[in-house]
Amino acid sequence: MIFVTRKEHFNAAHKLYNPNWSKEKNEEVFGPCANENWHGHNFELIVTVKGTPDPDTGFVIDLKVLGKLIKSSIVDRLDHKNINLDVDFMKDKLASCEILVMEIWKILEKELAAQNSRAKLHRIKLVETPKNYVEYFG
Ligand code: NI
Hints:
Tetrahydropterin Synthase, Chain A; five-stranded mixed beta sheet
């Protein structure tokens, strides 16, 4: 089994806010991340797939193809957007990295299956700040 990784980048705004809570409770739990007027991050999206190399190409997946797929199905929908307001697949969801990475997984898993790719998702790592990142293994 070989693991192959592609890194992409996007900028997006969000706030952490639970609409079922008061403003005070949101501020208590989320601190500055609950700032009403949003804040932004330079996100790194690091997608690792696994599989065996195609005997004709030597590739588990063509990284150009994987890059285009991540761009068209994920990055184009998030880049320079407000995650809480603009992103259809995050509608009515908490805009945390944990929730976001799980939604990204669902989309990419479907896209890879639709392409009959020999590569399967292994890990998605979403880096929010130099100190904070989440990893999801499905
Ligand atoms: Ni944030």
